[in-house]
Amino acid sequence: MQMNKNKEKLVQQHPYRSPLRKGIGDRPIRFKCSLQNTIIDVLRSKGWVEVKDEGEFDFYWADVGWMKEYFDRCYMQEHIRINHFRNHYELTRKNLIVKNLKRYRKIIDREMGKLEASRCDFFPTTFELPSEYHMFVDEFKRNPGSVWIMKPVARSQGKGIFLFRKLKEITDWKKSDYYRPREERADDKEPPETYIVSKYIERPYLIGGRKYDLRVYVLVCSYVPLKAWLYRCGFARFSNTRFSLDSIDDSYVHLTNVAVQKTAPDYDAEKGCKWSMQQIRQYFTARHGIEQVEEMFRRMNDIFIKSLQSVQKTMINDKHCFELYGYDILVDDVLKPWLIEVNASPSLTASSPEDYALKFGLLEDVLHIIDMENKLTGKEKRVGGFDLMWDDGPVMAEEGGVDCISPPSYSTNTFLGCNNDRKRQLRQLFKQLNNQRKT
Q1: In sequence order, what are the beta bridge partners of 198?
Q2: Which residues pair with 237 in a beta bridge?
Q3: Residue 240's pLDDT band (boundaries 50, 70, 90)?
Q4: Total-model pTM
């Protein structure tokens, strides 16, 4: 009941309805949506017209399945926008992002030296199975007693993930038909499912004895040139059980996915297992001081930018496309952030009224930046809760106006975990834009 009241309040409080986009004519903007969660509420709150089935659209929040099946067969007019890039999986499929990051690191090492390449060391040692099984075994033997984690590359929400310490626990891949010479294989036998195996981060930074990871939102409007925005809000997802390496088979200890945690016997749906990014920043600052925390967030900036740069030449850039990525970051006990994965379809289903408010504001601001109403100048460095962090190069922050425990000392225009006064900022922005038009 409380969730529904929050939804109605947020939808009714939408003060930023805009005139029609130039070039569409005298009709309202038409939208389609593949999802029935927060995004459909936001789109309906815009005053746009919803179209179903085969109806023509101006804006489509599509699922990745539609992109694969229909995108290449669609003729799209200049103004149409869709929420995925054609080959988004280069960044979001678990095996491909590792391949792209490894290749990019080698390029940086060759062209700029080892020091700069070391800034790419933000992902754990990882191999693809079964294709890199023998390389994995060599690395496994060099690190006896280590814990490793297996993840299927094409599944989500924690499905199929497990931890292990002994090679015999994954011998199914070695025994598979895949490893036999091609002439000896049974042609009608399906190859085994592709997994990645990564060295498990055995010393995560714990809060209250529990493991967590951070969900951060990055919006990419273009890859050529690269233009990326960082959202100020996000959250930490906690496990429901105290951390221990004595129970590596307990998913409630090691996996922070809400889809996993909500099945725990003692899960509290009202309380949930989340902290806001502002709470996380305040907690770390109180424990470790401003300087160390700023360095941690600066390293996160490196993760966002360098991961996008690693696929910049591979991604099919299309003026109709944009993408909202959900980055999953884990912080270890020395405050080093690690990239766990990037999601092309971060969950937009709310788990609490606070979660709904965060995602509603996030998606509203995505639509403001995509700017179907053609209100922005294109030179904005902040829109709502989003800050422009890269525009064919690093974007420098302006002095003042940042409500944080201490304004970041690094010069880039990123304020993750700082105050998100998005409604006030939007009122000021649109008032300024209206005044500019009048003059």
Answers
A1: 126, 149
A2: 213, 274
A3: confident
A4: 0.90
Within 8 A by CB and 6+ apart from 227, the residues are: 220, 221, 388, 390, 391, 392
Give the contacts of 28 (CB within 8 A, at least 6 positions apart). Answer: 20, 47, 48, 49
Specify the pLDDT at position 419: 93
130-189 per-position pLDDT tens digit: 899 999 999 999 999 999 999 998 877 777 889 999 998 887 655 654 444 444 445 555
Q: How far apart (Å, rounded) are the C-alpha atoms in residues 231 and 385?
A: 6
| Residues forming beta bridges with residue 222, ordered by sequence position | 227
8 A C-beta contact, residue 328 and residue 342: yes
How far apart (Å, rounded) are the C-alpha atoms in residues 253 and 242? 6
Q: Residue 72, Cβ neighbours under 10 Å: how many?
A: 8
Q: Count how many residues are written for the chain.
A: 439
Respond yes or no on whether the N-terminal peptide bond of residue 130 is cis (omega within 30° of 0): yes
Beta strand pairing call for 323-331 and 337-343: antiparallel
CB burial of residue 291 (10 Å; 0-12, 13-18, 19+): exposed
